[in-house]
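Late entry, written up from scratch paper. The run itself happened at the end of the previous shift, but nothing got recorded in the book at the time, so transcribing now.
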Amino acid sequence: MRPGSFSRPRLGGIRFVNSLPVDAGILTGAVPSAVELVQGTPVELNEKIAAGRLDLGPVSALWYAQHHSDLLLLPDLSVSSRSPVQSVLLFSRVPFRQLKGKSIAFAGKGWTTPALLEILSHERHGFLPRISVASIRVGQIPPDFDAALVIGDEALEWDHRIRNGLVPSPSYRFDLAEEWRGWTGKPFVFAVWVVRRSFYEERPEDVCEVYEVIAQSKEWGEAHLPEVLRLAEEKTELPAAVLRHYFETLDYGLDDELLEGLKLFWKYAVAMGRLAALPLPEFAAVTGEPERVIEGGVASILKKALDGGRLSLEEGTRLYHEADLHDLGAAANALNLRYNPESARRATFVVDRNINYTNTCITLCKFCAFYRLPGDKSEGYLRTHEEIFQKIEELIAIGGTQVLMQGGHNPELGIDYYEKLVRAVHSRFPQVHIHSFSASEVWHIAKTSKLSVQEVLLRLKAAGLNSLPGGGAEILVDRVRKLVSPLKTTAAEYFAVHRAAHEAGLKSTSTMVYGLGETIEERMVHLDLYRKLQDETGGFRAFIPWSFESESTEMPLPRRTGSEYLRMVALSRLMLDNIPHVQAGWVTEGPKLSQLALLYGADDFGGILMEENVVSATGSDRLYSGVTKEEAIRLIAETGKTPTQRNTNYEIVRVFSPQAEQVLA
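Output as recorded:
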């Protein structure tokens, strides 16, 4: 490794014999190297790469696609097959088509194979398989299952025992690579070699050296097949003839034909909901070939945005990874000044109050520390009308104009409760804008009351509801939502509520909570979905991004950084070319970062809230449960902009002097 490297690069190796022709040169010492070779199942290697415990190595082809924004491919390396592969087998008691509704056991050691089985079952045979992780003994379908999906060495050994009469033959045997080839005419790629993007950026010379070691080891394996077979025999106790035939079915390159097969697999994975969008393969520059697939540099992408062009998901992803933060901020700020020229001299804010009317909820989101289950008498609550009125009176006393009522999905509350609440607030405080109830709350009301979403919105509007907040969005990709909030609205249901609201004449806002385990590509998908609905309805007033705080939740994920927040604010402004305003959220980021965000594409400081209970329930030491009106004025003034109070419709209420001492208008 080059001088100054502080640790040996950590290289992954597949524990199965399928990667021995690539790894044998390193394992035997025939190819000298300074790498630390760590072996594991495909799932284990995926997890180690994700956790930063490996720097380079093979990962499942589907897992790469789901995390490709954090990874770079290494060229000409894969585990693929252009023919029956023998190590990805489905043993079944019944024909393939009769597996509909039947239980299929899987040992859980792979990532790509279950997705392949889902695609073949759904697209070719018209059903979704019921796959469950279970303990599987070689040669025996578990008693409670109708089939077993077996991969790697276990599949080879099971197949060998059947052929030699050592175990009973199941009624049916399906080689999934053969099934795929017969259906699509394409080869199948099971695993690809990757490097963590951050490691490549920090130590590109080391990556080039390790890649050369892998390439030499692969060449050594091709030239020394007897030695590779000896290692494989020791590992599996299978005859050399079986192993030789197996290795002949595998391909360890990544040529255009293999890439075509891989992209077709990803296309079906998108259709099945396994991927949010087709990934853009990017290769690390280790052998002199171009590093990026997208033509043109970062500067040309920024110029495209500044010239009024709409950025693609791939361009947004590339800007996130490659653009200099200050260049990104400068471009976003320039666009903001084009959309909101008055923000060159002023920054707006709204004096509002957040009121959580109930914390009782049955949605059980993993990221939430606020909710309490029905029946919790000690900490669960439902605010009375008088309690809510008192809070609104305190808001009006300081010149507030907007109330944000949000709460849990309380199973005891239907449309009658919400109509009475909205009507009571509107009747008593007609001057206050009721900006309340997230899309997931509206969906819950409709479900509880057995009404359509449209009926709920029209009744609430008639009672006095003025607009909807964008809460409940988190990440609008169902792969992520199934992981963190499986009982909440899907992305399609979320947008259905906002579309219905816009059609009913109710404006709304849009949001993102990032840092929930999503990829950067999925963040871009989230932004693009908002952009597409805005093209249709024009109903979104503003976009508000903020980061996830994991303390006291079921998701102990790492904290996001301030630079990441500024990057997301800037990208939001660049991607959302049809949403007029971007707000600087201070709840999770803090006032100082919100000040900076006003120079990175945001034009608005958001609401002071007066109180914030949901995010602050995490107990994080860096959260802010509220800022005062005076603090908001001071913080904006410190940026050199004029503090300007607005209402929900972005109409000016008051303008304060930059010294925040007096009202100017």
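Residues 288-295, 550-557, 612-624, 660-665 have pLDDT under 50 and may be disordered.
(Scratch paper discarded after transcription.)
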